[in-house]
Fold this protein.
Amino acid sequence: MTDRLRILLVDDEPLAVERLQLLLARMEGVSVVGTANDGEAALRIAEAVEPDVVLLDIAMPGLDGIDVARELSRSQLKPAVIFATAFDNFAVAAFDIAAVDYLMKPIHRDRLERALERVREKRSNGADAARAPSRYVEEFWVPDLTGLVRIAAQDIERITAERDYMRLHVGQRSWLIHRTIAKLEEDLDPAMFIRVHRSVILRRDTLIGLYRDDAGYLTARLKDGAEQRIGRSYLDEVKKLTGRG
């Protein structure tokens, strides 16, 4: 399998196609094998050129990008799909059809390079891609300054509630998503995460100690030096971590 990625560009705006061609021309290990300006043409050309990657707009007349991606996923080709769009409200649908990445226009070279690197990683780990999907959520699409980025669940250290939103903490950064803590608790692998408060979920391996504070509340010490008081409703589950539950 060659490392050179064969890319099909699909966008109903000729200037957008031209911009992508210029960006890709400056990158190593890629070649543009075709372009299309609508969904129907994209499917015909994909069948003819058999691309490794389809760089795909979403909002197009006729067959839109989401429909094209679904059709490609049902075909024998199954190319990697990277969405390139001016709209951020299709991220959930993109996630549902396993898009590799979701780029917001105007597309910058560094973001495009990272997306293509994800494709290479996926190709090199083909055996992992073939495994049965987990029943738990393994990644999230989250808004960022450059559009939307994908966060692996296993990288999330702490989740805190903020009214109707949940904040995902990864190192020194954090992102907000619109979801309830009850839904997140249900979606996340309980072998990896534990709810310790009505508004806090922790990744289990971030807990390094437990102690009683001056008020008598059980409190967790975390790897990053922070502390988290344990809610009464969650005491029994947290105590199980010590083998004393």
About this structure: The mean pLDDT is 87. The two ends are 52 Å apart (CA to CA).
